[in-house]
What does this fold into?
Amino acid sequence: MKNLMDKKLFLKYILSAIFFLFMQSELSFSQQTATYTDPDWHYKMGTELFHKEKYSAAADEFNKFFKNKDASELNKINAEYFSAICAVELFHPDAEKKLSAFIEDHPENIYSKFAYFQMGRVYYKQKKYKPAISWFEKADIATLNNDEIAEYYFKLGYSYYIKGDMKKANASFHNILNTDSKYKTAALYYYAHTAYANNNYETALANFEKLKDSESFGAMVPYYIVQIYYEQAKYDELIKYA
It folds into this structure.
């Protein structure tokens, strides 16, 4: 009886294994068939990988897609954009060239205004702040998600700051003071600093006070506070604080 049950269990195991292997080969065959029959297969795979931030694998898929003569023309244009962004994220030297070509060739495409933001990022990374400002100013923030909006306002503000436009820098930093982003603390510091540069001492003081315990900026805060008290002729507060 026991031997019979063991045989049945063994057969059940074998049948399950065969069924699993069959389903795996069916799936593999279906994928291979789709690759041959769907001219936009590599585009779909590329966009899926792109949204998972697997930029190197996505770029490979787009390169395969470009070789297909029967592919959708719209998807070919969109793939140019995604391929350019992959180059940006992977720090490829041709990223700027790819983005420029996309913007010039397809100004009517839905991704064109988003490409302006990406071009600003490229120049910002290169510390070319004047052209970074020019591209950022063309961007449509309605096309950006929350993290990208925070990045946009911080990098635009910092670019203004480096170029000496403290009023525009201050206004840009102000837009992300209450956002939950990795740029928040740095934006608060530069907002306070540009307020100080614009002689808005009360605003500068109130915001420097918020940074007293900051690991990144706390050590610099006392020097500004002392200077603000001096500029306001609050000598008693200056002596007490110092």
